[in-house]
Amino acid sequence: MDRAAVRELLGEPDLVEELDVPPESGASTTWSYQHLALELSFDEDVQFKLARITIFDPGAEVLGFRPIGLSKSQLRRMYPGVELVYSFEDMKEFIDEALDVSFWMENGRVVNFTLSPKYVVDDTIPCWP
After folding, report:
1. Which long-range contacts (CB under 8 A, 24 or more apart) does 60-63 make?
2. pLDDT in tens, 29-49
3. 10-36: b or e for each residue (b if 16 or more CB lie within 10 Å)?
């Protein structure tokens, strides 16, 4: 899905951020929809198609569970496939590769989760379910 299709579905974003860090990974544009509690990211390396959906809504579910607000032990119990991939001070990122979902924790609680698509054609075209 490209930016025009998203704009048609959701309207104009509340905030647009252009990122180029680190430069070797290519540019990325993030659209924030505060009233929907989500961010949509479009990456240069996939022709600025929708590459990630980050959800901040505590009522949002993944496989019937609401991950936002869960502790580390609760997260592991609800999503047994998660693995810690990043940790710095009070921030941690857990990924469940089978689900293509990452969970960000701050101060011991999940604060958001990110959905990622499968990719086709040499990992360059995002394919959302």
Report:
1. 60/113, 62/99, 62/101, 62/113, 63/99
2. 999 999 999 999 998 888 888
3. eeebeeeeeeeeeeeeeebbbbbbeee
Using one digit for the tens of pLDDT, what is the confidence trace for 76-97?
999 999 999 999 999 999 999 9
The answer to whether residue 127 scores a pLDDT higher than 90 is no
Helix/strand/coil (H, E, C) string of 5-61? Answer: HHHHHHCCCCEEEEECCCHHHCCEEEEEEHHHCEEEEEEHHHCCEEEEEEECCCCCC
Q: Which two tokens stand for residue 110?
A: 């999940």
The closest alpha carbon to 15, from 38, 48, 49, belongs to 38
Query: DSSP 3-state assignment of 76?
Result: helix
CA pair distance 78, 125, nearest whole angstrom: 30
> In the predicted model, what is the mean pLDDT of residues 49-76?
96
Paired strand residues for 99: none
